[in-house]
Amino acid sequence: MDLVWFVVLSAFIFCIGAAGVLTRRNPLVILLCLELMLNAGNLALVAFSKMHGVGDGQVFALIVMVVAACEVVIGLGLIVAMYRRRLPIDVDQMSELRG
Amino acid sequence: MWFEQVMFFFAALLAVAGALGVVVLRNPFYSVLALVGHLFALAILFLLLSAEFLAAAQVVVYAGAVMVLYVFVVAYVGGIEEAVADDSAPRRLGPLFAAALFVELCFAIVGTGLGAIDTRGAETGEGFGSPGQIGELLLSKFLIPFEAASFLLLIAAVGAVLLARRRRGLEEMGGA
After folding, report:
1. Which of these, A60, A1, A8, A46, lies nearest to B128 by C-alpha position?
2. Which of A79, A81, B77, B162 is the most interior residue, by most CB within 10 Å?
3. Which residues of chain B are within 8 Å of residue A87 when distances are taken between CB atoms?
């Protein structure tokens, strides 16, 4: 398989994720769409790593996975805190940063 | 050769279907399940790109651990079915923006000056993408990012505990 296929696929998945972030209102699903975008980036990184025959891109992808895990933990913690305070789980109605 | 192509199109179809499922499905629980399928398809693609360790990490860490966290939170919060999209401007323009972005990215990829993108990549040796090679890179060339990642994980863990702990009185205050 030519690498250009992998890169185009990664661009397509990234755009699906971007559309999801823009159209969905549930913060849980928005986090999932962010994961999609990060994974698309990972796929491109691994494809370019293969293109050069150097392992650096794979290490980058691994670090991206770590960052994604951190983002998930904090995002889910925020959602749980919102739920505990009976706030609506909807990004359109969350317009105040109040402790 | 043809096996590789069949696997690529199978995995690519599964990945795109999973991604569309995440965006389109109304129930967050089904969205999480679609993302798990998407992650498995990506692991297959990583294997095709001879990134064995990354594929294993994808399945074990991502599809295994991170998605379990999602499932727990969806079960805790309750799968809230969100109302069918209203027609505020960003909701209508979102897919349009994504399509424009994809077209632009395709122009960039097809017109790129990277000569090797139309090949199957450089010839790689036996150990390419193996745990040994990744570990060696992490502990020599990328030692500082590695340490920074460990600090980031620690900060995220502390932050999550801080965010999700139960504080007396706040529940009643927020409920008004």
Report:
1. A46
2. A79
3. 174
Q: What are the residues whose beta carbons fall under 8 Å from the beta carbon of B161, sequence distance 6 or more?
A: none
Q: Which residue of A has its CA nearest to B128?
A: A55
Which residues have CB under 8 Å from B20's CB, separation 6+? A16
Site from A64, A80, A82, A95 to mutate, B interface, most B CB atoms within 10 angstroms: A80
Q: How confident is the model at residue B166 (pLDDT cuts 50, 70, 90)?
A: confident
Tell which of B54, B69, B107, B150 to mutate to test the A interface (max A CBs under 10 Å): B54
Q: Which residues of A touch B107 (CB under 8 A)?
A: none
In this predicted model, what pLDDT tens digit does every residue of A37-90 receive, in sequence order? 999 999 999 999 988 888 889 999 999 999 999 999 999 988 888 888 877 777
For residue B164, how many other CB atoms are within 10 A of its CB?
18
